[in-house]
């Protein structure tokens, strides 16, 4: 019960990241970000430049979020306000990155309707939905991280 009643001004470690807000969003961020990565990578990446950005964002955020989870689970953050600020900064940046990637992917998908295959079009639609869900999750995480940072 102590893990769920933890104050907003402290950073959890160990299994506590599975029960506290905003850290409970780590798993859905990894799932939806990984789905964007998989769905875009499963098709022929054309045009390369904008979809390269989408791939960069999804891979970068997936790896960084995974490392962030490991750092918090291992307790390497030492419960300092710098880590709380870094948590807010990372999730705010990730939300901005995913928003830009989602908009680019939606634009490409809209243009693909007339000349792309149905399977690729549907795959990209799913990737767009998951990109915007990841954006929402990272944004909510950033808001709660800012609140936690404020209470430090």
UniProtKB/TrEMBL annotation:
One GO CC term on file: membrane
InterPro entries from the UniProt entry: Marvel, MARVEL-CKLF_proteins
Segments forming domain MARVEL: 17-150
Keyword annotations: Membrane, Transmembrane, Transmembrane helix
Broad class of the protein's primary localization: membrane
Transmembrane segments: 24-45, 51-76, 88-112, 124-147
GO process terms (BP): myelination
UniProt keyword annotation of Transmembrane helix present: yes
Subcellular location: Membrane
GO MF annotation: an example: structural constituent of myelin sheath
Protein topology in the membrane: Multi-pass membrane protein
Annotated PANTHER family: MAL-LIKE PROTEIN-RELATED, MARVEL-CONTAINING POTENTIAL LIPID RAFT-ASSOCIATED PROTEIN
Name assigned to this protein: Myelin and lymphocyte protein-like
